[in-house]
Hints:
- By secondary structure, the chain is mostly helical.
- It has two domains: 1-35; 39-122, Arc Repressor Mutant, subunit A.
- The protein has helices spanning 9-35, 43-55, 60-67, 71-83, 105-126, 131-146, and strands at 58-59, 87-91, 99-103.
- The protein has a three-stranded antiparallel beta sheet with strand order 1-3-2.
- Strand 2 and strand 3 form a beta hairpin.
- Helix 2 crosses helix 5.
- The chain is globular.
- The mean pLDDT is 93.
Amino acid sequence: MPTHYSxxxxxxxxxxxxxxxxxxxxxxxxxxxxxxxxxxLTPSQFAVLEALYHLGSMTQGEISAKVLKxxxxxxxxxxxxxxxxxxxxxxxxxxxxxxxxxxxxTGISILEEVFPRHVNALVDEFSVLSDGEQETLGQLCRKLxxxxx
Length: 149
């Protein structure tokens, strides 16, 4: 759906592209949710578990930066993951102000169960694009994500 904004050609093209990008990611996330690829986890919980699984233990601030969520949002997400026994907090032995977040065995098991399903669903969803198109899309997203340097 194109924009109905009657600005300059640059403004309308930019808004139209933004609308398409937003609709694309929302539609993709909705289809993944319908497939139930991440089980009972929220997208934020899944992102935290996935980051810890692949990158190892981190502080809440480091996790927040990796998953692009606010530190205050991470507090709630990590509280819920800890309540469910999927992560544990541990104070740093050298600096007690620092708290490291670790995956528990249960957290590892849950992620190892849902991650392959999620990856397979993503591969299926992205199969509408050729390999080259996926690479181009990735490059364009990286460029737009970095913004003006």
